[in-house]
Design goal:
By secondary structure, the chain is α+β, with helices and mostly antiparallel strands. It is built from 27 helices and 15 strands. An 8-stranded mixed β-sheet has the order 1-2-7-6-15-14-9-10. A 3-stranded antiparallel β-sheet has the order 5-8-11, with no helix packed on it. Strands 3-4 form a two-stranded antiparallel ribbon. β3 and β4 form a beta hairpin. The termini are far apart.
Length: 800
Amino acid sequence: MLYAAIAATHGHLKHQRYKCDAGLLEKWTSIKGDGFLVGAQLISDRVDSTMRAVLLLVVGLASLAMATPVTDDNRDLVTLDIKQRQMIILKLLNHVMEPLMYKDLEEIGKNYKIEENIDCYVKTDVVKTFVKMMKVGFLPRGEIFTLHIDRQLKEVVTMFHMLYYAKDFTTFIKTACWMRLYLNEGMFVYALTVAVRHREDCRGIILPPPYEIYPYYFVRADVIQKAYLLKMKKGLLDHKLCDFYGIKKTDKDVYIIDENIYDKRVYLCDEDKLRYFTEDIDLNTYYYYFHIDYPFWMKDRFMDKMKTRRFELTVYMYQQILARYYMERLSNGLGKIKEFSWHKTIKKGYWPWLKHHNGVEFPVRFDNYVIAHDYNRDVIRLCDEYERIIRDAIIKGYIEINGVRLELNKYKDMETLGRLIYGKIDKLDVDRVTVDSYRYLLIVMKAALGLNTFHSDKYFVAPSILDHYQTALRDPVFYMLQKRIIDLVCLFKLRLPSYTKEDLYFPGVKIDNVNIDKLVTYFDDYLMDMTNAVYLTEDELKKTKSDMKFFVRKRRLNHQPFKFTFDVISDKAVDCVVRIFFGPKKDNMGRLIDININRLNFVELDTFLYKLTTGKNTIVRNSYDMHNLVRDRIMTRDLWKKVESITDMRDFLVKDLRNYHTGFPTRLLLPKGFVGGMDVVFYVIVTPLKLVDNVDMNVLDTDRKDLVRDFRSTVLLDKMPLGFPFDRRIDIGNFFTPNMKFVDAKIYHKKMTCDMKTRWNRWVLKNYNWVEWSSIEADTYFVDTDINMKVDRNVNLVDL
């Protein structure tokens, strides 16, 4: 059997050998893993050295084919199969803009015939649809992919269906190898990423971060240009220029290039003060992975059973990003987020300084940008009509779609409203593969502002910064759009009654004391691997690795570790939910903010379940242990080495890779603050746990050895709405109870010296320090009046 597999891999057998053969799979599953590997070793002794690498992959795929489900034998998945699956995914996503350089995977893709393997998929109609689309033609390789073009959306959703409906992991990998060879690179990465996050047999697989797969969306074009120049010159350095541009070469032949944030040419307006936050690679990765887990086009049947309250969570995520963005605006002296109107100019522009792999630059939006033009008035009219429909439905308390009445008058209807805004209401009992992208409000809004998806070319497009989930957070207008949409949610919440004393009160429980460590933020450096942005030579393709490694050095916001300690006194042992929020105390003008205006500006810092005991309970929460946070992600090249070297991935998955895909960056827990301290308010509330029905509490047990899934929100296990108790209008007279507490605090910013700035001053401003050229001989050099002169207070100062 192994001889046949080896021969098939070398093309000596016909393509029919790749069909799903139930009898063959039964034979494979009857052989235990250890015996199978020993047999493979015996046979490998008989083959020549050039075939051993191919044999290893065949053995791997055979082992994957006999892998048992997670629930049956988790030990096999984690200790053996997950490593090989992980390595295959890493290879498929390495240098995606290049030809597939791993010969074993290339051979699989070339020899796989989709039309001859229709029975290997759960839904044959999906395969037939895919084959029809292939005959018409997919987006060509090398072109720019965006979800906001309806034809490209339909194509990539069909690709996802092919990967998702593969009957086993072997068919899944063969399909992925075929797509990697023949379909558009951007589409392939997106479809494979979504499939890995939603397939049951892909649990525990770690995807490379999007900024390493496609660095063009995360690194400025001028930095990538310097990397290309170094590649063309084969690493030849001009030391004077290297000092000015911030290029260094380490002992391990790693080239580090600075992305200088102090270069004033990047700044177009005062909104660019926030670039350190809006362009943070981890923040944009968080938003991108949220979309991957909850795509707007995906039907609920694809969702994991733990992904409940999908659209309520989507609305809450956007509201939290807006609140966190507002805190950062206050840290830089900026006011509230500006109101967005279709019929007014956008006063503040944005210059992305990004470029696609094919040389097409992201369009610039200059100051005082006029939205309404003759060519997009129909799109703006569609936006206005759809917003009016949703607003009228909220006011009436219901909406009728496809003959079905949907209520919008209870807090549980938040899911329906979220689906109306960010998703799509489908016809009942109809299963369609096609997707109508123009039913999604957010996409239509982006179409009016950036890439006009109604009138643009369906293939050769120049998407705006808003048209990619990896880059949308960079543009200030994104937050203006989201605020306009969240206003619809606020209108819905105003229909709901305020929380009563009974809703907020926890009998027998009191928060006695709250202590917060000193909160200090600062900027530090971070190295990001951007080697995938630079193309490989022919020799490097043969070696499957680049001889030159390129890192970009970025400045990023960080904070010193802190603890949150509070005492809870309880007269009984009971399960509870602890929620910790913080928000601004004053606006940018130094005025106190009313709590009903300020409630939407509170950011959820931490939420967790806790078992109270009778008496005093002292709870300590460290900043790095708070819920759903992720630390610095391991570089893919280091992950590769780690996976190859370790024998048991359990601890590696649970500890080192915790919340790898779902986590919010722990560095961005706190806003920048002020040097002298920024006034903020912390809020703690302890409420009884109202557990949702049919939930497996073991999902929260971090000591589980079979934990290969990450859980996005603990609060989803509680029946209370997300954002409770700030999600509804506050009735001051009934709001304050013993089980909650407000605490004032300050966030201090520590200024750090950066060589990026001192280098700029040393080279550019060295001949412009005019004060040193002039000697100061009088006390009136800087002022009109001698500061040492006695002044008669009775004399009019204007007369002096």
